[in-house]
Amino acid sequence: MESASELVEFPLLLTPIDSHYRACTIPYRFPSDNPRKPTPTEISWIDLFLNSIPSFKKRAESDTSVPDAASKAEKFAQRYADILEDFKKDPESHGGPPDCILLCRLRELILRELGFSDIFKKVKDEENAKAISLFENVVRVNDAIEDEGKRIDNLVRGIFAGNIFDLGSAQLAEVFSKDGMSFLASCQNLVPRPWVIDDLDAFKVKWSKKSWKKANNSGADIILGILPFARELLRRGSQVVLAANDLPSINDVTYPELVEIISKLKDEGGNLVGVSSSNLLIANSGNDLPVIDLTRVSQELAYLANDADLVILEGMLCSVLILGVK
């Protein structure tokens, strides 16, 4: 299920000052909590994952690459629901106490044991194709903004708007399946500044020449949110590394998919709408979940990140990174 290569600690964030780093930043429980009784926070997150089961089951049922998909999708739904209910009775069951990484990992484990490797493949391909057709227009709109501060503001708005396309959320998945979602409308409907930035798990800025970004959901998120921002860094002379998941998980973009997307967006000269992509690298993060544990990243990513001056982890709980170095 996980990457076959050895995983290592992320070199920049895991310093002596980060000795208490935990991959799941939300405190589900404290040492004083009863180990045999779920906390209110654990119950809330367990219910959140329970509510997502119907949308995952529906995606699994429609996976034509898996024989007898409907029957196996039903097994997935029942097994996962049983595990989540077990956590409500005993938070230490199934390797608990539960946190977001464990809840995601158990879901992916059951899907893969039943033969489902990428139940969101069809919708990812569809949304990537739509977003690719809009990419040039989105970057030209950004390029037309002469004021640097306003242009960066607009690019950040694009990142926020793109990350709304998260099919791991039961509510968003329902809206998406009924009405679809518009990237431009999402940009326009963002609340005005000041923003509370909980979409970016880490945002270390030092405009220098190497940028490292971890890219998240397929479609609008990566293509219309992340890539225009990365292109702006390239235009400023930065070296940019985009890191994506090793294996499929919900609708997050994978390393092979990101390589293919970039190849489709480049022109014959290797440019991204007039900006050279010669300083753009795509890396495999080694991750296999929609959340990331920075104690377990690929050796390639750790090497590339070592001298980065700008690091952005973008996403729900982050499955995408941007590295930047000057």
From TrEMBL:
<dbReference type="GO" id="GO:0005524">
    <property type="term" value="F:ATP binding"/>
</dbReference>
<dbReference type="InterPro" id="IPR002791">
    <property type="entry name" value="ARMT1-like_metal-bd"/>
</dbReference>
<dbReference type="GO" id="GO:0004594">
    <property type="term" value="F:pantothenate kinase activity"/>
</dbReference>
<keyword id="KW-0378">Hydrolase</keyword>
<protein>
    <recommendedName>
        <fullName>Damage-control phosphatase ARMT1-like metal-binding domain-containing protein</fullName>
    </recommendedName>
</protein>
<keyword id="KW-0479">Metal-binding</keyword>
<keyword id="KW-0464">Manganese</keyword>
<dbReference type="GO" id="GO:0005829">
    <property type="term" value="C:cytosol"/>
</dbReference>
<dbReference type="InterPro" id="IPR016949">
    <property type="entry name" value="At2g17340"/>
</dbReference>
<dbReference type="GO" id="GO:0016787">
    <property type="term" value="F:hydrolase activity"/>
</dbReference>
<dbReference type="GO" id="GO:0046872">
    <property type="term" value="F:metal ion binding"/>
</dbReference>
<dbReference type="InterPro" id="IPR036075">
    <property type="entry name" value="ARMT-1-like_metal-bd_sf"/>
</dbReference>
<dbReference type="InterPro" id="IPR004567">
    <property type="entry name" value="Type_II_PanK"/>
</dbReference>
<dbReference type="GO" id="GO:0015937">
    <property type="term" value="P:coenzyme A biosynthetic process"/>
</dbReference>
<keyword id="KW-0533">Nickel</keyword>
<dbReference type="InterPro" id="IPR035073">
    <property type="entry name" value="At2g17340_3_helix_bundle"/>
</dbReference>
<feature type="domain" description="Damage-control phosphatase ARMT1-like metal-binding">
    <location>
        <begin position="52"/>
        <end position="317"/>
    </location>
</feature>
<dbReference type="Pfam" id="PF01937">
    <property type="entry name" value="ARMT1-like_dom"/>
</dbReference>
<dbReference type="GO" id="GO:0005634">
    <property type="term" value="C:nucleus"/>
</dbReference>
